[in-house]
Structure to design on (366 residues):
């Protein structure tokens, strides 16, 4: 996608304030962007998740790309309860390497500055008093610049990269499919309330709205783990902290990257969990791709709240990867993935036949 165009979409989406359950600003803006695409139709389920579908020609959709519209933030407390519930459940998002606080608040952080609000999302309690906040009616966010681009280092900074980057990637995918007049079909799904335990995604998975043989691909931003590095391409995830993803779908993504000439990395990113796990648990085949993220959930190594950031080149590569996947004909049969790998192993079996025969005598009667 054209550099300037991508930056302008990023800027406009990043400018939307958001919080768990308060995704309406993002939703409204996404709807206005999606309106421009003649082959994209949009439905909203009764929970408020957006289900967009690209359809050019009669092809059947095999892939659904999903991103969430919320981000950890302060929201008005609708329950009136003031107790803090420090989450020890398995769905909280721990911050990698941070030993400062074991309390990874998931629901219920309170601050004497705003007694009628609660902090929703996985952020260690020690960070909460360190950030200034700005109010947007019923919710409040960290008072950070919505969007900045550091051209020299190709870095995009935002008060929310997770997961507006994923939302932008889906818009960019549709834009590219329109521009390239790609035949076929795919879905783009924008969910609500991921940060409190995939609430929107679970609702959607349980609703039975998604076609049965659809594969869900979570587009996320994640902390680097293991050997993967920012700037070396998006990560095709083999799993997250809670589950392993669909082997065939993951192989298809890696094959699409190879055919499309897109630099990707492959890893288990188990610093957090994503909607692919939720979809898998509720019967939808799923895998995921992540752009590596700095200052995950605004938690800087300094112990203070700061902007999240990503390398723009990685975002571009994520878009190129999903465009390549759809361009390759919406196939999800392992033709380029698992079948190719099996053919390679079959060949090896054949190639080493002479060695097997040469040692057959020593194994006789054994
Ligand atoms: Zn996320």
């Amino acid at each position: 996608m054209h550099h300037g165009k991508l930056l302008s979409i990023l800027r406009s989406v990043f400018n939307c304030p958001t919080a768990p359950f308060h995704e309406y600003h993002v939703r409204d803006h996404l709807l206005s962007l999606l309106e421009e695409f003649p082959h994209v139709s949009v439905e909203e389920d009764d929970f408020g998740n957006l289900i967009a579908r690209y359809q050019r020609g009669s092809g059947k959709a095999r892939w659904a790309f999903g991103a969430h519209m919320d981000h950890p933030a302060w929201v008005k407390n609708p329950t009136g309860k003031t107790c803090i519930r420090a989450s020890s459940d398995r769905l909280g998002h721990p911050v990698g390497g941070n030993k400062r606080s074991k309390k990874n608040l998931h629901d219920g952080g309170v601050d004497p500055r705003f007694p009628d609000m609660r902090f929703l999302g996985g952020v260690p309690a020690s960070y909460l008093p360190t950030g200034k906040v700005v109010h947007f009616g019923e919710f409040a966010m960290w008072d950070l610049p919505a969007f900045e681009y550091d051209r020299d280092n190709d870095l995009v900074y935002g008060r929310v990269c997770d997961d507006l980057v994923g939302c932008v990637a889906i818009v960019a995918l549709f834009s590219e499919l329109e521009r390239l007049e790609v035949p076929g079909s795919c879905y783009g799904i924008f969910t609500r309330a991921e940060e409190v335990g995939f609430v929107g995604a679970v609702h959607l998975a349980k609703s039975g709205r998604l076609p049965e043989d659809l594969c869900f691909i979570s587009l996320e931003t994640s902390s680097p783990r293991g050997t993967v590095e920012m700037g070396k391409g998006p990560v095709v995830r083999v799993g997250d902290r809670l589950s392993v993803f669909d082997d065939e779908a993951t192989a298809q993504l890696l094959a699409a990257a190879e055919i499309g000439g897109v630099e990707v990395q492959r890893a288990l990113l188990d610093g957090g969990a994503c909607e692919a796990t939720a979809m898998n648990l509720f019967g939808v085949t799923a895998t995921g791709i992540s752009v590596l993220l700095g200052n995950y959930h605004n938690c800087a190594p300094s112990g203070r709240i700061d902007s999240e950031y990503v390398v723009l080149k990685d975002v571009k590569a994520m878009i190129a990867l999903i465009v390549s996947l759809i361009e390759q004909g919406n196939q999800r049969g392992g033709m380029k993935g698992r079948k190719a790998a099996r053919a390679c192993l079959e060949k090896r079996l054949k190639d080493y036949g002479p060695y097997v025969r040469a040692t057959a005598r020593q194994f006789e009667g054994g």
In short: The first strand starts at residue 40 and ends at 44. The two ends are 63 Å apart (CA to CA). The chain has a mean pLDDT of 89.
